[in-house]
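Predict both folds.
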Amino acid sequence: MRRAHDEKLRLCDALERIADALPGVDRMICLSTANSIVPLLRSIHQYEEAIIFPAYEEAVVGSEANLASTRRLRAEHVEDECFAGEVTEILLAIGHGETVENPEAIGFMLRGLFENLRRHIAFEREHVLPMIGIAG
């Protein structure tokens, strides 16, 4: 799980560097990042939903608030993957030479994704992982 979080945080850092560099971002970095976003998130989300969340739910049996947390985290996975698809499209367009017409809007969008991901990781590290005996 620590490796999964580290991979997501590296993605967040890459998105932040792109957002900070707009409009003069390296096209190859955009392409590389775009091609990794959705597969990385899907893989990690599948792992969390198959392994981590069931272990957490078992550890907190009887606590409705905590079961609501995994429902929310699963919903965030869907939202993040949809958002990641939109970010991928934009980064692919930039990577293929499309002019960055509105760098502020694109930067805002990138920041929205990586801030959501970082918040999700922080919640898992503070609440989910300690309950299942994994240090965040």
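Second protein follows, with its predicted structure tokens after the sequence.
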Amino acid sequence: MKIINFSKRFLDDIAEIEKQSFVNPWTKEMLLDSAKNAAVKFKVLIENKTVAGYYIISTSADETEVLDIAVDPKFRKRSFGQAMLADIKKESNNKKSRVIFLEVRQNNNAAINLYKSFGFKEIGVRKKYYKNEDALVLKLINHKESAL
């Protein structure tokens, strides 16, 4: 397993994982627009020369937001989500970010359990964030920076 920067050659695979993972998936255009944004870090997890997952984060001032994260259903339950969260934390540290935020579908128990096992805490609810479903807002204090 390795986590590398996004390249357009991964776009079709990422778009397919998006479709398999989300009710309202990002389009290829949305993914490409994110990759062009200087405030965004877009990384891809590769396993045996195959796209197994990816994440997109944005850091502004001292806060990082997870905009998108997914693992291909064929690769789930193999610690790839944890590996990407660890990489997100590293990228966040590199940007001197104190906190990491994300939203997760309220009924996505597998993702919620993963995030909470990594140290994320629930801080709120966004009503109807996913059209007919609420989102939990989670926050992770970046301990390396919070000690300053």
